[in-house]
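4.2 Preliminary Data

To establish feasibility before requesting continued support, the project team ran the inverse folding procedure on a target of 235 residues. The structure was first converted into the token representation described in Section 3, and no sequence information of any kind was made available to the design step. The complete token record follows.
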């Protein structure tokens, strides 16, 4: 059950998968530009390199690296796997910016607009500031503030990210609620004293790979989407 003893002031949102449909957006662009390629598999392969690349940074194998640059490192490997090595630098750079063009889920803009009437809304993403700013501008996402791993020079689930939100807005950790579709992210937030809201995104990995969206009882809240969350929070 949600902790009602302390008033929540800030909602911090994971972005990739929770707010935007990374798989569907990437697959559509690949399908349109390279119809011979398995676009669903391409999107999954690109995303699959994300955690290993971040772990290399966190382990000190790589210096601090922006997600845009990690995405490009992974892309240069994925194009080999999918027979797209003919793509030149201009084409690869443009394709890498697909992460700036990800479409929000259908409920997102309306849900955020409702939630913003009551709460301070911010991003809390491993995406870098340039990526998040351009993505948010294109999708008309009504944030009050854009926060990123880049600000804290630490990737989630490093405690510096979650506690950094509370420090930024001068509130207690328990006055911040992380909204995310990924249990490991929510677990990291709970360990730092934040409230949590689990959002179902059954199609995050595409229609061919539906997710098990069973919530964990440890979360304060569980919502189908952001409109459902807004309703539960009285917005």
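Position-by-position output of the design step:
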């Amino acid at each position: 059950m949600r902790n009602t003893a302390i008033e929540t002031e800030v909602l911090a949102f994971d972005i990739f998968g929770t707010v935007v449909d990374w798989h569907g957006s990437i697959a559509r662009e690949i399908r349109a530009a390279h119809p011979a390629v398995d676009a669903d598999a391409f999107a999954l392969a690109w995303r699959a390199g994300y955690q290993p690349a971040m772990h290399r940074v966190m382990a000190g194998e790589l210096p601090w690296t922006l997600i845009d640059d990690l995405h490009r490192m992974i892309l240069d490997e994925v194009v080999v796997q999918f027979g797209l090595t003919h793509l030149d630098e201009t084409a690869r750079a443009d394709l890498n910016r697909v992460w700036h063009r990800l479409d929000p889920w259908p409920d997102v803009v309306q849900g955020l607009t409702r939630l913003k009437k009551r709460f301070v809304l911010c991003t809390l993403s491993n995406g870098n500031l340039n990526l998040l700013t351009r993505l948010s501008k294109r999708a008309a996402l009504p944030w009050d503030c854009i926060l990123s791993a880049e600000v804290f020079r630490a990737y989630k689930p490093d405690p510096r990210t979650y506690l950094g939100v509370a420090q930024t807005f001068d509130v207690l950790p328990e006055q911040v609620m992380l909204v995310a579709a990924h249990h490991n992210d929510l677990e990291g937030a709970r360990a730092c004293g934040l409230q949590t809201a689990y959002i179902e995104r059954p199609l995050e990995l595409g229609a061919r790979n539906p997710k098990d969206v069973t919530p964990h009882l440890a979360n304060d809240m569980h919502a189908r989407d952001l409109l459902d969350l807004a309703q539960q929070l009285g917005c």
